[in-house]
Amino acid sequence: MTERTDALSSLGPCATCNGREQYFESAIPLGRTQEVWRVVCPCGIASMRWSVTKIAAASMWNRHMAQYERKRRVSFPVKKW
Ligand SMILES: [Zn+2]
Which residues hold their Cβ within 5 A of ligand 1, which is an ion? Predict the structure, then answer.
């Protein structure tokens, strides 16, 4: 298995839109030579922090979504669309 399919298959659905259309975004920060990655959802939600590998970016996304879920459950009622 390649890193790409591994990372993509471990992505959880978006906590806000429930979508699974997330994609990886890469950038090279100032003063760095290596790319960093994060996961972005078309609805506008993205990982809070950049990671050095796609795998790490995927787990960062999953953690972000878990926190998002928790926060939403505590602070305001879930809307049913
Ligand atoms: Zn979304």
Answer: 14, 16-17, 19, 41, 43, 45
**Residue 40 has which token pair?**
């972005």
| Cβ-contact 57, 3 below 8 angstroms | no
Kindly report the backbone phi and psi dihedral angles of residue 60, in degrees, each rounded to the nearest multiple of 5, phi listed first: -60, -40
Task: Please state, in angstroms and rounded to a whole number, the distance separating the CA atoms of residues 13 and 23.
Answer: 12
Q: Over pLDDT 70: what percentage of the chain?
A: 80
Predicted TM-score (pTM) of the model is 0.76
Rounded Cα distance between 56 and 11, Å, is 11
Report how far residue 34's alpha carbon sits from residue 32's, in angstroms, rounded to the nearest whole number.
Answer: 6
CB of 48 closer than 8 Å to CB of 62: no
